From TrEMBL:
Family recorded in the similarity comment: Belongs to the zinc-containing alcohol dehydrogenase family.
Protein origin, superkingdom: Bacteria
Cofactor: Zn(2+)
Name of the protein in its database record: NAD(P)-dependent alcohol dehydrogenase
SMART domains in the cross-refs: PKS_ER
Keywords for this protein: Metal-binding, Oxidoreductase, Zinc
Keyword Oxidoreductase belongs to the record: yes
GO molecular function terms attached to this record: alcohol dehydrogenase (NADP+) activity; zinc ion binding
Sequence ranges assigned to domain Enoyl reductase (ER) in this UniProt record: 10-297
SUPFAM superfamilies reported for this sequence: GroES-like (SSF50129), NAD(P)-binding Rossmann-fold domains (SSF51735)
Amino acid sequence: MATTQVKAFGTEAPEAALQQMNIERRNVTPKDVEIEILFCGVCHSDLHTARNDWGGTIYPAVPGHEIVGKVSSIGAEVSKFKVGDLVGVGCIVDSCKTCDSCKQDLEQYCLNGFTGTYNGKDKHSGKQTFGGYSEKVTVNEEFVLHIPKNLDLAAAAPLLCAGVTTWSPLKHWNVKEGSKVAVVGLGGLGHMAIKLAKGLGASVTLFSRTPDKIADAKELGADEVVISTDDSQMKSVAGKFDLIIDTVPYVHDINPYVATLNISGTLVLVGYLGPLEPFLNSVPMILGRKSVAGSVIGGIAETQEMLDFCGKHNIVSEIEMINMQDINASYERMLKSDVKYRFVIDMASLK
Ligand SMILES: [Zn+2]
Ligand SMILES: [Zn+2]
């Protein structure tokens, strides 16, 4: 199929630094939108994929799934977008559209596997997909989102992954005015969870291991910060929360947080993938009808709903802008949680 070469930043091997390279993008097919990428957020998944931390990375790899930009070309049958529209692309660029999950707008749980924005398999070319660390991307219009015009475009980029990853559980567990929500961990995901839960009218508590996050959390909208290493503070919130969004990306003891759930409350894991240690004790779950659940990103309709909500409530991410060439140093800083709260690449630096 016809392709065009575009500049990108990617890596050839797990231990190699990211560097400039050329990649092929398919030319627009009738249902495709071509996007000139203006900004791209930097997600922890980018780093894990670049370094093959989860296995399965195909090289060269070009990360980036918090993409915002401007429509530069459209296919003949595109009806939802026109040239010049401000648009976004998140973690999903294709799915089967026919399975039970897809029929319910749950493309993130596509039973045939969704096509990832990077390191996925492009159904058109049969080759792997490349992410947003590049000049342009071509995506089927069904997987492209409208970005509300009033939002700061660069700061809206992280909504496409960090935003919807926390929005989806807030909506699924019906958070509304007066709900009591707690967030574990204050990073890219955690700070979005606070803003979105607050926007929905919930009272929001941050669990933090140290007091140094208190001022920042309150500035982001948290009503309260509970120091999770302080037993008396943890006891003071026993049985309080309807929903806990746990964004911590490494193995940690969730039993103390389960104790703070209300009857029928749910703790939902969105950051950590793997076996829980120490063991999860079922006693408080059974005696309080409590749940421990998981959730991954969100569907396309839900992502648009979240973006529209953010437009209405003027919610964006807190970002630090970087040039494309700073990406390797930025990955090192991310590993030390040295970012408030998301890096966003100014793609003009790639030109
Ligand atoms: Zn991500
Ligand atoms: Zn499907």
